[in-house]
Protein 1
Amino acid sequence: MLLFLGIGVLPHTGWYRVETVLSGSMRPAFAPGDVIIVTPEPLREVRAGQVISYHIPIGDQHVQTHRIVKVLRGGEHPVVQTKGDANDSIDPWKARLDGTTAWQVRAVAPNLGWLIVWLRTPTIRNLTVFGAPLLLAVLGLWRIWRDPEEEIRDVAPVA
């Protein structure tokens, strides 16, 4: 119950977030399948060396967690350059941090997120998106089309 409360409910308070690591770009700090806990940090206080989670400014703008290697502009909306610890070069963009807070990594729970990584595989995703509804439809049709006399015999007491 406490695990459900800590992972599922309390992050909605804004005190922290729980994220699952999907790539190895930050090895050895954390690896795929680890869970990281990030807390809000005022944007004015971001500095080089911090590991933050942010939306990348290109493509699908997914959340990425990398180390700040350089703060190009401070202030209310800092612009930073980031790099994964396991990567050879810095990220090919300059990220402008918007909002009021950045999300700084505070703790790592090794291997706690492998279930999430497994659920995101294409095979499992297709099974849940297509297989589960198909199974429910088949079960529903079976209940509709089965012989009503059979149901009466199953429920009626034997004399």
Protein 2
Amino acid sequence: MKLLIGLSVLLISVFFFAPALPEAPSGFDNKTNGLVDDATHTADQVKFDEVEQSSDGLGPLYNAQSCRECHQNPTSGGSSQISELRVGHRGPDGKFQNPEIPIARGAEIIKGRTLVNDRAICPNAAFPGTEIQERVPDSEKIRTFRVSLNLLGDGFVEAVPDQTFVALAKDQCKKNHNKICGQVLYVPILEAPGQTGVGRFGWKDQHASLLSFSGDAYLNEMGITNRLQPDEVTNLCNTVSEPNDTTGPDGLADIDHFARFLRATETPARDAQLAQTSKARQGAELFDKVGCDICHVQTLTTAPAGTKVNGGAFTIPSALGDKQFHPYGDFLLHDVGTGDGIVVAMLEHYGKKMYQITWKNLSISEYNNTANKIRTAPLWGVRLHSRLMHDGASVTLLDSILRHKGEAAHVTEKFEKLKPAEKEALLEFLRSL
């Protein structure tokens, strides 16, 4: 009995007095977090910043010529004001349907995606009479913009165990009597066919892996086919063989450099001077008091080094393992009254052959449940965003707060009951993030 009591005391002591995990490095200095050396990180950034040309496989439909074009505030990998356009409509059964976008004067219909690319490489000198610019038909009544996300620090987000997000969602539901319930979405890992993971990247949590996210972005944002996404959206005007993105002398393709670059980035740093003020510290307490921290979770921890994630395709290195970081987000899907009604287009994000693969834990009905849900926006670095919320339609922090309805309605009500000075303190805290 004494032995059992002693063991219990020891376990309790370990739980309450165990040393905190090391902090993930933060900053906007373009330095590595330790995953690779600075020279390698700089070389990977060159790939991230590289401007693609038609001869590289750019397009035929695309939004940007480089990753940096959409992710560069205040440095490569950050957020921006750049937005993408997504559309769709409801079918006779009331369910969301992907759009059908005619190009080439109706000669071809683009299907299987919600993204409408803003740019095209034709007409050009080689194809002067080929018109492939996408335009939204009047039939697509559901329309939204989505601003580019911050990617800095996402290596640590990728290293968070799936079970952490599952537990977060369950805890939210239990403590808030099902009023606030984050949704966990299991999504395909493209580099591990048949395997899925808990989605955490993209406004709809459509990817769990940074390499999968990379392959998606290269195809759908720049039109660069790659080993994970080898099929062009259209072959009109296409003159470059597939996949456009091939391995270099180091055995890595551009999507590999992209993923490694993001995995090696530091997390967004706070405004240290502002964070130390009494006003910002009071605001931090009020942030928790009104319930903002339920979804905007301050601290997450990564799995131990050596843990295999992404269906076994990636092993967490020591630079990312056993670290704590502060995203102020739960990376779960919520309905806070701003949902755009759009469901993830499976072929767009996972490839034209995705239905030929049996994916573990994949549930189409769960995807359909996300129509009016958006991933909680992590607030790290929010002071550097000029346009807020998923669509960029809010331009002040106060506007963003007041726009929260749905699951967050009672939290917004608590904020509105604060005294003017308290509201200002909470806003000052947000300005420090």
Protein 3
Amino acid sequence: MSRDRFLPVTPATAGDLERFSAAYGTFRWCSCQRWRLRSTPFREAGKEGRVAALAGQVAAGEPVGVLAYESDGDEGHEPVGWCAIAPRESYAAVLVSRVIPQVPGERVWSVVCFFTAPRARRRGLRRELLDAACGYAAQAGAAVIEAYPSPDGKAYRYMGTRELYRAAGFEEVPGPPEGRPVMRRPA
């Protein structure tokens, strides 16, 4: 498999994100709005409302994430992976979370989700996506990249694991033992 391209989602690549979303119902169900919207607005939006919210964010030029593309022979490049990354302040649910400790900092960008097409799993794509997402955030002015991996490595795996982030140079920030881990690295 050749994964030779990682691109931020912008209005120019919005069609690729829509194709990716339409192909994977699990991704489409949330459309990476779980951490952007607080609980009540998330539930009230419903699946199609969340799809529309993501499309609106992209159309408005807001940072939402990075797509991974796989060469598909004569048909060009197909999106096979996603990493949601954006300024921390764009994630309303992260900012009010009772389980994610708020670590001070300026120009902090958060990684909150990965989704990989089944055919592209178990090949190191998440690590490549994370590297591309961190590079994108740094170019956009981030000073710090922050992530909130699942504490036990099982639930919420879509947010990444401690091992993934450690391998990419993230370090755990000391915090309350009952909270979710916060891991950071300089952009």
